[in-house]
Design a protein that fits this description.
mainly alpha; 0% strand; 17 helices; 309 residues
Length: 309
């Protein structure tokens, strides 16, 4: 077998079952100057599979393949110079390689170069270019890029403001499972910008909360607390607020304190309520800070323990 394409195909098929032979085949393809051979060797050196781990040697192989026009190698170089490895960050090289990969049709590079232009990493900010690449990524099926396009259309960043298109993109992203997009759809439903009202908002917040998005979990707790879009359930509200409070969120700490203080969804315990008010104030909750100052003015603080202050 001497054809470099066949050598690389065979190497891929042996990657797991016989990695040493796969590396030998990639090496033979590389000797013939085939970019996939260099790329395969680089991948195996990076992971230390079929050969000794050699990140520096892998970098040179990626560079050789990239200079020969190999898009995946261009992408790997872009990722390398983004600072993925300690001491490797070079914003200008990062931009150059991700852009070359994107222009060569590497779909994974589309959102990378879009973010570079949106935030001005290694170059000047260019929202119009960012929008163009996020749109390409969204059209290629990337859910997070759909969310980005929705945001840019809703705010008129890099493109004309278009709420109808923004909502379409937010919905597609949300259906694809992006928590931030689910949160946005919930907010739009609450505001009446999309159909469904409070019930739809509750459903979207529930989905985003299940995906671990804390702002959605907080709003979901509030909907249980107020009985919006669902039956009022103080115990469920307390549970959700408590989960968020465990992360140190000031607003959630305040709500846990309030529910302890008033006996809502949990056994009344004013001592714990004061404790959580103090923790909330220390965490930056303005309403908790105002409450604590009011308590200090009106009561002997030696008799009322407010932890955290």
């Amino acid at each position: 077998m001497t054809d470099p394409n066949e050598l690389c195909e065979k190497a891929v098929s042996l990657f797991e079952s016989d990695p040493e032979e796969a590396y030998r085949l990639f090496t033979e393809a590389a000797r013939q100057g085939h970019p996939n051979g260099f790329f395969g060797m680089a991948e195996m050196k990076t992971m230390g599979i079929g050969t000794e781990r050699d990140p520096e040697g892998a970098l040179e192989l990626y560079r050789t393949a990239a200079e020969a026009g190999h898009p995946p190698s261009m992408y790997r170089l872009g990722a390398y110079y983004s600072g993925a490895v300690e001491g490797s960050e070079d914003p200008e090289k990062c931009r150059q390689w991700f852009e070359r990969a994107a222009e060569a049709g590497m779909e994974l590079a589309y959102p990378e170069i879009a973010g570079i232009y949106l935030y001005g990493y290694g170059t000047q900010q260019d929202p119009a270019k960012a929008y163009c690449w996020y749109r390409k990524a969204a059209d290629a099926g990337d859910p997070l890029s759909m969310f980005k396009v929705g945001y840019m259309c809703s705010e008129g960043v890099g493109t004309e403001k278009d709420m109808a298109e923004a909502i379409r993109m937010f919905r597609m992203s949300a259906v694809a499972g992006v928590p931030e997009a689910m949160f946005k759809m919930a907010a739009l439903a609450s505001d009446g910008a999309v159909e469904g009202g409070a019930r739809a908002a509750f459903s979207w917040y529930s989905s985003a909360a299940e995906a671990g998005f804390m702002p959605a979990k907080f709003n979901l707790a509030t909907m249980y607390y107020e009985g919006q879009g669902t039956k009022r359930d103080m115990a469920k509200a307390f549970q959700l607020y408590s989960e968020i409070a465990d992360t140190g969120d000031g607003d959630a700490l305040f709500m846990v304190g309030r529910m302890y203080y008033e006996g809502l969804g949990v056994e009344k315990d004013q001592g714990k309520g004061f404790e959580f008010f103090g923790r909330a104030a220390a965490a930056g909750s303005r309403i908790a800070q105002e409450l604590v100052e009011d308590i200090r003015r009106r009561q002997n603080t030696q008799l009322v323990r407010i932890d955290g202050l």
